[in-house]
Amino acid sequence: MRRSILLAGAIALLPVLALAGDPGRDAILSDYAAQARRLDPAFTGLSAQRGETLFRTKWNGGDPRTPSCTACHTADPRQPGQNAKTGRPIDPVAVSVNPRRFTDKAEVEKQFGRDCKSVLGRDCTPAEKGDYISFMAGQ
Amino acid sequence: MRPGLLCAALLLLASPALADDERVRPVTDPVVRKECGACHMAFQPAFLPARSWDRLMAGLSDHFGEEASLPADKTEIIRAYLTANAGDKGGQGEARKFMRWVAPQGMPLRITENPAFLRKHRFPDAVWKDPKVVTRSNCPACHGRADQGLYE
């Protein structure tokens, strides 16, 4: 009896555990969401779908060698990438392949600064950054 | 025939010592390895004189068109390491040949424009257009152990 209750509890918990993120990544996500809300009171939440659009869109205004994020991270974020300017290999950016992705705030901010400038020719907004990580967290 | 064989044997015997002599001291500082190895291999400081590294570290916000700025504390750690191990502070191995081409006041920013580099890298266009290579500064694409300072 007790056993089966425990078992039921464990089974009920399973999907939650599988979905639970890393505390560092969760903190980064809620920080971006809070910043986005401050900038735009109508902001309703981060969106993995918008993140995917950001990832795949061919922008104008950045470095012509890197029209989109996929130029270095490839169209499949689970695959290793290659820096289009230097040829250096890049580890996959999908969280399922690389659970340590997007867990260090300073690293994430530094890289958004460089990569958004290279691809979009401007900084990404907090909402765009949160969307992007939401997309990668589900990949 | 015999002397030829002997020569080959001698060469084989001598090669470990030779390799050691040609080795460029690899980058050991963890901050340099991480920050200067993020976009390309962390190049060995022996390939450029100290004044070149000073100039490069002063211009990270426009680094060959890249925004490569770092916090001031990290910038200083890296600058100190690169200048202390620069080619004009007793360059080692293969990198010695590079220093011979640098004018006394010269401050080159590229290793790949040094004549010592150019004369060893006269390859057909097809080699440089290989998608694994991308650019001349991608040393590890052709030198598997470049990161360890070995350019065989």
UniProtKB/TrEMBL annotation, chain A:
Domain Cytochrome c per the UniProt entry, residue ranges: 46-139
InterPro entries: Cyt_c-like_dom, Cyt_c-like_dom_sf, DUF1924_SHP
Signal peptide bounds: 1-20
Region (Disordered), start-end ranges: 73-92
GO MF, one example: electron transfer activity
Pfam family, one: DUF1924
Keywords, comma-separated and alphabetical: Heme, Iron, Metal-binding, Signal
This protein's name: Cytochrome c domain-containing protein
Organism: Enhydrobacter aerosaccus
Lineage: Bacteria, Pseudomonadati, Pseudomonadota, Alphaproteobacteria, Hyphomicrobiales
From TrEMBL, chain B:
Highest taxon of the lineage: Bacteria
Keywords on record: Signal
Signal peptide span: 1-19
Protein name per Swiss-Prot or TrEMBL: Dihaem cytochrome c
